[in-house]
Amino acid sequence: VLLMAGGQGTRLCSSSPKGCYDIGLPSHKCLFQLQAERIQRLKVLAAKQAKQSITSVSLPWYVMTSIATHEATMKYFQEKMYFGLPQKDVFFFMQGELPALTFDGKIVMSSTSKVSLAPNGNGGVFEALHKSGALADMKSRNVEYIHVYGVDNVLVKVADPSLLGFAAEQHADIVNKVVIKTDPKEKVGVMVYKNGKPSVVEYSEISESMSTMRDTHGDLVYSAANIVQHLFSRTFLEKLISNSLLEYHIARKAVPYVDESGAIVTPQQPNAIKLEMFVFDVFYLTDKVFAFAVDRDTEFSAVKNANGVNGAIVADSPQTACQFLSQYHTSLLRQAGASVSGSSILEISPLVSYEGEGLEEIVKGKTITLDAPYH
What we know:
Helix content is about 25%, strand content about 25%. With about 375 residues, the protein is of the alpha/beta class. Strands 3-2-1-9-13-10-18 form a seven-stranded mixed β-sheet, sandwiched between helices. A three-stranded antiparallel β-sheet has the order 5-17-14, with no helix packed on it. The protein has a two-stranded antiparallel sheet with strand order 4-8.
């Protein structure tokens, strides 16, 4: 399992790593803890299936940070005692950086003696895996497939057994999880064929005519929305020893800089270019790429924006993430034979169930009234 956790919770009004953020669930578990507990539950299920002790099961967690989040992330994991996971099974490493550039191609200086650097995008994961020794560690553990995902999806099924099974059955190099896009204005990339090769085009790079194009049934032609969940074979990753195979994407940002007098200037509008690589830009290097479509309601709810004020609902906020997780968990209880009523937030601990297994023996025939947050 490889978590890309280089982002801070800036848009959530937090300077901490985004994975530390309490999104407001009844348990007050942060994103890191939810994911760690799903790993723990999978280990229990694997041990049961293999009829072995859980101590014999290893599911390593590789956490890619940035220079802005590395120390804080490591400290947080230590304080939380790695959320119950063995310390030897948690491997931290940092993504690389690139200098910010002015619009006319000059290097931005953050002080009179220091270049302004920024993370090189999630596509920097490949070189970082090699340089940090993480990929060698995977090989030493006989890891065959690596589930790569972003930190901010509250519904992520880490190391999804169905995804792994599909990849193994197809002898895939890459499997990309997608959900079906219904709104052409949704800010997500979509899977396409680019120059005859599978790829992902970001929402900012696709034309309006392409994003709104519909087929004879009225469905969007480009509808396979990328949700930053990729499965790679280790043998494929071992071939990617350099960033030279990836293209750079331009992000226009407001970057603080030092002016000619030596004063720090904090611009309110974009004044510089940050160069980023995207993890999906390696898709073209193999023909063994598959899309794996999943249900949005059970697998994708991002935490990107702060909650609205005065009761306003903001998309991709902690509030909507809690609601989607509650709706999913409510459906699991109903499938297990429980009667559920009420509208408060419901949360099922990942330590109890990964995706509904084992709930029937706990809740079948019971009535649960959600007149207050419940977990």
